[in-house]
Queue: 3 jobs
Job 1
Amino acid sequence: MSKSNLLLFTLSIVAWTPLKAAPSSIPMPEIYFSPEGGCTDAVVEEIARARNSILVQAYSFTSTRIAGALVAAARRGIRIEAVLDKSNRTGRYSAADFLINARIPTFIDSKHAIAHNKVIIIDGNTVITGSFNFTKAAEESNAENLLVLRSPVLAGRYTENFLKHKAHAKPYYGH
């Protein structure tokens, strides 16, 4: 690589790097990849560990295992809320109706062309995020990634974003 190309490459990385550095106290994330890399298992296990609250933002949500884990958590007394993309309102196999039938407050974010978030915040400490949609296809067929991050600081930022989207989302009452 020529010196000028190296300089341009370095400058592009510097320009891309966020100005705020992550706190050094944030532990290394757990990292999963699909297909069949344990993403769904990781999500289900984290939901099972919840003690107080679970906040879900999802674009595509059809995984019966993840939806079942959320319902089991709700039955244990965990406070759960979900903000889903508008495609879940009309999707034939959406978990939105499953969650509503389990009395889990569910909201539809139709303010955006696509509410493309894939985030679960657990107990104000754990954030699950990545490209991984909460679907069977994401686990078995797609090339996806999933991070499990343990940090109250990051969970706080993601919770702020969740609440921002919940504020303009509409309650979902089912089909």
Note: The beta strands are 30-34, 53-58, 79-85, 106-109, 118-122, 126-129, 144-150, 170-171.
Job 2
Amino acid sequence: MAKIEIIDMERKKVAEMEVDDRLLKAEEKSHLIYDVVRWQLAGKRSGTASTKERSAVSGGGKKPWKQKGTGRARAGHSRSPLWRGGGTIFGPRPRDYFYALPKKVREAGLISALSSKYQEERLVVLDRFRLEGIRTRPFQEALKKLGISSALIVIDEADEVLEKSARNVPGVQILQVRGLNVHDILRHEHLVFLRSSLEKVERNIMS
């Protein structure tokens, strides 16, 4: 079992907790991390790019000139893709970029990302993160005491005070356990858990 220090808002050790080695001491598998991030980003693509083909471009109902005798190339339509203002050949059409990725691959990628943060000593576990009210400055001061500037903070349930206090702070994101994902872990320098949220992640993944 991996032993992790639990600290308070003053960065003082208040307790220790044991976490399954399979969650935090797994071998880093960069190819799985890549596969999961690629899958996540594909699902976020809007897929709204669209061009008009010949049939969708307005105008051009009349044959520009007669077939023979003009000395010019034959033309049957002024909205041909060969003409300025004409349609597009094989242009992009609205589509969905999402594709399925096996659950085991997704879980292995998440475990690999968590393990890499732990092994880089960039995983922090707090006993709690309490603020008196919805205010940005006290939240920033709390992070400064912890020596953290860029962080993904994982909470076990909705916390309006914490979420609203952090929403205007650059480089910081608050996420509930159910939304924990590889891409957001990699985007931030530190990964911060509450004790309760880390216990919940361990139960969800290891059970």
Note: The mean pLDDT is 93.
Job 3
Amino acid sequence: MFITFEGLDGAGKSTQIERLAARLRAAGRPVLLTREPGGTPLGDALRALLLDPARRDMAPAAEALLYAASRAQLLHERVRPALARGEVVVCDRFVDASLAYQGAGLGLGEEAVASINRFATGGLRPDLTFLMDIPVRVSRTRVAGGRSGADRIEQRDDEYFSVVRDAFLRIAAKEPDRVVVLDGTRDAAWLEQEIWAHVEKIL
């Protein structure tokens, strides 16, 4: 089973991923937790490049390709082997993030980015995706309060993140059987229960 979490930074993905993993393990399910970009030595090196504030000259197409490259390595090295072993894979971000951040946010076009990622993933898609939806202003406040110094992506303006959020919601509306939209401003315990209810149905 392949589960992904999406949403703006500060939406609470990391908290809910950890809580879901704990519940899955308590239910006797082996779990692989991973994230994008990163999750492998090559992916972590690409992550450092992608998030480096000094890399302001990076072309939008280069950004999309680097995310796809990290994703291809993650699938090859960790995700596909884990699924073959019968594990539940829970990933912080996947192709939906590229469609929203690069396809919509950077204006590359969602179909162009989808095409790159079909090649990178071999067509692998999540069984279930949780979109943790929060307003842009909430995202900005949480991110600013959580760490020092914004990374290259976080330095973009509110208009960019509004476009990204709209793209996530558009993807969810197109694929309601896969994408569950959750209000990321809700209490963490409530969100945990709601997520587990959806996962338990599939299990």
Note: Residues 7 and 132 are 5 Å apart (CA to CA).
